Amino acid sequence: MIDAFSSQTALVLFSGGQDSTTCLAWALNRFARVETLGFEYGQRHAIELACRDRLFDGIKGLRADWAAKLGESHTLSIPTLAAVSETALTRDVAIAMGADGLPNTFVPGRNLVFLTFAAALAYRRGITHIVGGMCETDYSGYPDCRDETIRAMQAALSLGMARPFELHTPLMWIDKAATWNLAHDLGGDGLVDLIREQSHTCYLGERGAQHDWGYGCGECPACSLRAKGWREYVAGR
């Protein structure tokens, strides 16, 4: 599988979080060149975007071959997504569970929009491989993180742009503990420590409190998943 991609370029959706950093390392281990894309959409935890430069520096310092493969970093601003959303990720409201069984951190259409813009950018740059950290194993129930959604998007984007896009979701079928393990397999203790210290997951944008699994409020769904995965990862080593 790695050999099949060894001469090609990938575009990684890179927010600056644990999952996207792990996916970036996964792509660097497989593709000849890797570009990244982040989105400004009025998110409360926009501090995650500020983490990317430190993560880039850390990634480059871990392995010389990764440094040589790392290409352009892109950021797209799509404030309209926040304007049409009434969610705890785009408004200063308390995080709570909705009547539909989804937490109010769900931003309707977010991953659909992200993948559409990513494919449009990839089209212009001659890239057909797009990598995202979507997962339906250990997640908050978001319907646009499900494998069925991603496969449908791959078909729609490929048809709509007449380009054979392939959407890679290396975390789709693994839980957060396995995501920590994958990071270790890819980059050893160095990558695990980089993710702990420099990536950002907390929905509230909290960087003041440092835990053994990283920075965050420790209470929001994203922090809870990350902390639980870390405890299981440590217990299994």
TrEMBL record:
Matches recorded under Gene3D superfamilies: HUPs
Q: Which cofactor does it need?
A: Zn(2+)
Q: Which residues bind Zn(2+)?
A: C202, C217, C220, C223
Its annotated pathway?
Purine metabolism; 7-cyano-7-deazaguanine biosynthesis
Q: Give the PANTHER family listed for this entry.
A: 7-CYANO-7-DEAZAGUANINE SYNTHASE
Any idea what job this protein has?
Catalyzes the ATP-dependent conversion of 7-carboxy-7-deazaguanine (CDG) to 7-cyano-7-deazaguanine (preQ(0)).
Protein name in the entry: 7-cyano-7-deazaguanine synthase
* Source organism of the structure: Bradyrhizobium huanghuaihaiense
